[in-house]
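Standup notes, structure subgroup. Blocker cleared on the zinc ion input:
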Amino acid sequence: MTVANDVLRRVLGESLSDQHIAVIDQLTEPQYDEDVAESLGIKATIIRTLLNDLHENSLVEYHRTKNKKTGWYTYKWVRREDRIKKHIQDHLSQKISMLQEQLEQENNGLSFKCNCGIVDYHNAMENMFICQSCGSAYKRYEDGKAVDGIVQQITEINSILQSIAE
Ligand SMILES: [Zn+2]
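Run returned:
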């Protein structure tokens, strides 16, 4: 899978950075880090850091060769097509878990309001949503915007995940 799709590029840019994507784009064929640096006009030291990040995420691999004269090793890097999709899926799944946790917290933190005060969800539930003091019904105190926002994000991410699942 190439990183051609805009949505997937955005996800990858979010989990890593746009510079990482630029490096991945360069590595259609095995290349030395200096070559990548020259093509992108970025310092080789920065390119090496980016390559190491990508390697930690298993998105690139390298072939090492020893220079017989100097005894130094040189590295040729290439991207791992097979891992890119998995990386995106993992990132999105992790994001969904985080949002679900947030959603649970939002729901646990719901407040209810009657004519005389505000109580938490458990309190309102115990009294069957009628205040024992003033006799009025408890109503949701928040406007629910936070919850709606989280639900919307979960739905969006889920549809991306479904679109790349085979
Ligand atoms: Zn009341």
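Discussed briefly. The pocket of zinc ion is lined by residues 114-117, 131, 133-134, 136 (CB under 6 Å).
Next: hand off to the docking folks.
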